[in-house]
Amino acid sequence: MICTVSIKAFSQKDSTAVKGVKVKGKIEVTDDFYNPLSPSKAAFYSAIFPGMGQIYNKKYWKAPIVWGAMGTSIYFYLDNNSEYKRFRRAFKQRKAGLQDEFTLDDGSQLISEDGLVNAQNILRQNRDLSLLATIVLYTLQIVEASVNAHLMQFNTNDNLSFKPVIIQDPSMVYAPTLGMSFKLTF
User: Fold this and answer.
1) Which helix or strand (DSSP H or E) is residue 163 part of?
2) Boundaries of each DUF5683 domain copy (predicted)?
3) Do residues 126 and 76 lie in contact, with contact meaning Cβ atoms separated by under 8 Å?
4) Least CB-packed of 3, 42, 69, 83 within 10 Å?
């Protein structure tokens, strides 16, 4: 009983509950500041065409970075894939007893069979890593567009501040106590 009464005695008054307020006319809400669909639109546009979500967020300088990163990883994927197919075709021709591009007219070989196998393995690994990099970059640019759209709606005025401070405790002269100060002014 004492705990219940003491909790009720120290509780704060609800500042949102206002009694007796009447509104005449219609209340108009403007979506200038907060648009809950903005992050999903940015993510959707980035999923359709990489970099378009950044353009939607009006961060135009990020779009060429996205295009350059995606283009580089796609270039390396295509280059490694074509080289892999080249060495694979030569290996298959050599196994079939035909002359491949790494065998000279006199029958001498520029690359051994083991060299062809090793080249295939390395190029296949590089191709797969390039594909993985492309997928990761594609996903990251979608996430970046969505997060950026969320953060654009975040209130960052000077009335909200966060400042870590060292608070001296008078009872413990030798050991300073670390604390944080959170200031919100209206």
Assistant:
1) strand 160-167
2) 36-186
3) yes
4) 3
